[in-house]
């Protein structure tokens, strides 16, 4: 019970040492790519590029900024729903994303784009997007352990999470040559199971002791909607940020836009139907409305067709909301997985659906729909993979999904065990979900005293309903 | 008084059935256009397009995303100002926009871009922008009835609103060949009068019974400013999103940027002058500062010149703020129009001004200012309209504005009558503006007890000022 | 003590007169540039431009919108942290930015782009960005006097601030030919010292009388994080918005992105280390995390290399957070500078660091790193400056920084003296940081009564801790 949450040494040391390591490694490895180097003027002349607008920057920067907003405002504010953990939600999200993106540039660079001749990693705007994507996986995992871990644990989780991510991504995208532009498998399935497994290892049987801090208050739910909406609105940018120039980005946007719209309606339907009088639940609206974006991560660039996108969204709204109603309680009670934000319903399950949708639509692709060159471009059937058939591709897509689950579960089990060591300054069971553990909070949590007041004879009767389970009635004579 | 607000059947059924209808209709009608189809590689070769950057996606996507933010965060948060209706504001806004954009793609497709040969509607990024625009009309209307209707009524209102919108838009833009890039007439005038007329039909003589729920609290006013600012900042994107490539988009941005800046100053001036000690009113700052963007919707792409844009903004700030001070109370008392958000002052009136400004500036256009080709491009004097003079154009612009008013009022009257049926689960008069009717609210509304405390002899004197009209003083002996 | 804060005449008069002056001056001077004029079609033909995408609009508009968000939401919400001054923070920010950008278009136009033949200023998207930049300087200064001045004073401060800005910018960028794409010197150093000096002139020895209003509450800190995050996320757009097309914009984004990530880690480290139990302080997270963006304003477009950017961020996080802990109290006590938002730590100091970093990296630039043409492009060694060496350039960069400090301090002293006149309606010492002075606040500030309740014998014991320094214990018999 007497947990030591003093992180005055560990947190600064980890931040300093890791940041210095980043500087050294960046010094050794990271350079500007040819489109962001001052030698671009020579590259242009050499490659006969007539206009600066051909710089990849102009194809991807608007999408990058949208993704950037999703990472920092989207994920950050989505998690502010707890009544007294908003500092931790948005603040630790900020911290781990800032570290994670640096480490991701290195890890992804080593695996994907290390130049064999110079031994350098050359980065441009697409590298920044990929780093943000990689970080997203870790932020998803944060959702499962929100309020129950220390910032030091989160940094450790991110260090390993990014490392695992880069490896599974390399296996799925490069070795298996699966397509996963919006990361249903690589980001959401991996991140989801990684977080859930860590949460399972860190199971707290006495978490009910901080029950008073779980749940939202009115304004924290509205803060969370800021996160929801920025994720929802910019998801088309997420799924299209690294797809092919031209029709690839264009199509991914249309598909995601439609899919998400459809998800909102079925989320509302199930949420309303699950309550006696048809009232809506903010938890569903904040989370399940996003499931369609997750599930279209793989297939967004495919010719899934507009109505196909609507169908995926339709199903995901139902499944995700049902998840909050039925599966989350089951996970907690039976499987001992405490999933603060319900990432199983928002990321893990829809991610798996996305992998399946991707495999099926890839296997069903045909030259009559895509055109000969369109098929080659979409699935990148070039080089070593120029003879691959769409059926084979479908198989490799499915294999990719299994890889992401295995990495999530196995990685989560290992990292969870590391995080279980009693050195990280995590909070006691009765102090979970409370910002006061890691933050200077100037305004102490108030006891909300809820009164019904009525003048009654010579007295005012107060019906007092404190949310701290104290309930009484008393009178004040005046 | 005993209204049944149970929507456990109606809401899910409407959501499910309509979404399934969307899927079927999309399956029959909607396809990717040539710029978002994998055959784009062939189109490029055929049309001799040298670079993917020529894809319309890169001209319009940044503006589209800004518009998308306006629809979901802008409109959604602008309406969160009520103390206990923020869930409904942002949540129902989310729901009806998500449905509306799907239905809009179909309705606008049938009227504007149904391919006669294939019977299909081909969609691209411009279609998405237009769908968002169409939805904006319905969200404006929502502002008039905010807090007084059920989500089912809102969905019905949106179904008919989008339908009416597509028809009036077809008449104004295609038949009359009026120009209205930012939708002063098509979006704001129509949406404004549509909502006001519905609110007039649904007049609640006993609305004062929920007076305690009207008005804002401190934090809800700040939430509303999120909406205001995102609308204000991105309005240049709104007015330029579908204007001509190149100078058309460029000029519309400059004009709207300037016009809105000017509006802020006159709004502040009138707001301050209207109070005894010069204090500002948040209602004015949240709403009237936006009126300039509405009023420049039609003329944004014209050569109205920078100082012209400033003048429009100058006038709109004055008129809109005056509207809140003088006209809204008049509408409510005399015309029996209860306009929760004051859309008459923010959309309807400025929309009409915008239509007039558009007609005048069109009629005053000249080859000396626009250049020969510039005039043709700006007013699209090609095909059937190649011999139209600017004076005639001005006339048709004015005619367009009348059409939008007629559609708004007539449509609102019909739809209002439908919504008056006692089957939609709308709230009782005393439960208006209260989220608890349609939402699971975990934190019950608190009685805010406002005390002045002073030790006085042996007692502490509490001066109690409850906002629930109870006011008393009592002492507690210690 | 009896200060008159009635601004019912002054505020409306200033707004009206100045806005009318803007309209007249715009009518005389401001015209569309060739890329936003309908004659663009002829320009294209004349200059042999093949595509509309070559219009500068498409190079800069996405960055412009990000900058626009920083100005209105970023700066506005960053200042909402005070418990009862959020209306003033976001509302007055809105007002002065809206006025300032108009005046900036004129002032910057006269100094930078007045066409000698026509006597006109031709504006396009880059002018809008520069106007927003200019306004940023004044909003920074607002941070120092937040809560202590009237809106009329703020408008006066902005009028002179923009004027001074345009002059110092002309000296630094045109006469000295220093480079300062993201404005470390021109914007942040100037704005910082301008605000600090004004605050020094307006020193209030009895400011402690409004101590109860200083500091934040839980939700106001989260609102402030909206500002922080939008500033942080979009800073890469800020520093790249007006850099060279192509690699220039691309590189500035990468550098700023990395620098800011690094800053977050060292800010967290110092913040945690400065507290007994390692708790984090929201003030640091909200502000110091941004210092890296400020400090890279000058060098963002240089070949500072990715690890160089990380080092700058590393140092700035440390210095800025230390500033909040050690320097701010020193400034207040010893130098009599009351700096509400700590702009010395967020803008002034990091701005100076940015100027130094810029001078050093410019002096250290070499043809081997930049390439011959790259060096010329980056430092614009053309025309009169075609023979300048990088060492000389470094010297001029340093000179530029001195100019910005001198203008800030001298300008602030003069403007501060003007603002000291007793005619502007500023609040009394005990009413500072209180929205009720200038705003209609519907919900009066509540006395937060913090109780610990325990049933004790026949009584309930209330331990009352009012934040208004009243502390007592009383019992209520029931």
For the largest sheet of chain A, list the strands in their spatial order. 3-4-5
Q: Name the average pLDDT of chain A.
A: 92
Major protein interface: A-B, 82 and 86 residues
What is the gyration radius of chain A calculated from CA atoms?
24 Å
The share of residues in extended strands of chain A comes to 5-15%
Order of helices and strands of chain A: HEHHHEHHHHHHHHHHHHEEE
Give the N-terminus to C-terminus distance of chain A in angstroms. 46 Å
Number of helical elements of chain A: 16
Q: List low-pLDDT spans of chain A.
A: 446-478
Basic shape of chain A: globular
Task: Report on the architecture of this protein.
The structure is a homotrimer of 478-residue chains. In chain A, a hairpin with a 2-residue loop joins strand 3 and strand 4 (459-466). In chain A, the strands form 2 sheets. In chain A, strands 3-4-5 form a 3-stranded antiparallel β-sheet, with no helix packed on it. The radius of gyration of chain A is 24 Å and the shape is globular. Chain A is built from 16 helices and 5 strands. Mean pLDDT of chain A is 92; it is low at 446-478. The first copy, chain A, has helices at residues 10-29, 40-47, 56-78, 86-113, 125-145, 151-175, 184-201, 218-240, 247-273, 282-287, 291-295, 306-333, 343-363, 367-370, 372-379, 390-419, and strands at residues 30-32, 121-123, 449-456, 459-466, 471-477. The first copy, chain A, is mainly alpha-helical and 478 residues long. The longest helix of chain A has 30 residues, at 390-419. Chains in contact: A-B, A-C, B-C. Chains A and B meet through helix 3, helix 8, helix 9, helix 12 and helix 15 of A and helix 1, strand 1, helix 2, helix 3 and helix 4 of B.
